[in-house]
Design goal:
Blueprint: H1 3-34, H2 36-46, H3 61-70, H4 76-92, H5 102-113, H6 116-134, H7 146-151
Helix pairs in contact: 1-4, 3-6, 4-6, 5-6
Length: about 170
């Protein structure tokens, strides 16, 4: 093969993979919203009403998670992992996870935790949910600073004045 042909073919394959990747990103975002209720249900089970920390629901942790992982700077592989993990949980529970009783949800999550994917996925959801619960209100969660009050803290200083300033650094 001549060098020129090699370079042309290499360019074509590189360009086509970029187009495929951009197309898959769109699918990932739409898939994320299709599993939003499942993720919120898991968050609410992990951080329920009536515990020492405020609940995932009262702090709007799902809003934080969705905004965070859809941000352009967020790792696309982790975003895909979150979607795939939620879909896997729903498949395991035959599409009924969000309607299960609390006891059945606990059983389902414990069984899912025993798998490699499930254990890693639950860990990732736990981290993102805690970030939301403990975040500065500017990021759309912990609006009433409930988590800070529960922990007897005032958050970090200096407080952010606006969200996500990555492009300015």
């Amino acid at each position: 093969m001549k060098r020129r042909v090699f370079l042309v073919l290499g360019s074509i394959f590189s360009f086509s993979s970029i187009l495929i990747a951009k197309n898959n990103n769109t699918i990932k975002f739409s898939s994320l919203y299709s599993v939003q209720k499942t993720i919120a249900s898991v968050q609410e089970h992990l951080f329920p009403e009536g515990s020492k920390l405020p609940s995932a629901k009262s702090t709007r942790a799902i809003d934080f998670l969705l905004e965070t992982i859809t941000h352009h700077s967020y790792d696309k592989d982790i975003r895909l992992f979150i979607v795939q993990g939620a879909k896997e949980l729903e498949e395991r529970e035959k599409g009924m996870f969000i309607s299960l009783s609390e006891d059945k949800k606990e059983q389902a999550l414990r069984a899912y935790e025993d798998t490699s994917l499930g254990s890693n996925w639950l860990s990732q959801i736990m981290v993102l949910t805690l970030e939301g619960i403990l975040s500065d209100p500017i990021y759309g969660s912990n609006i009433k600073k409930e988590a800070w009050v529960a922990l007897g803290t005032h958050g970090g200083e200096p407080r952010p004045k606006r969200k996500y300033i990555f492009n300015e650094v």
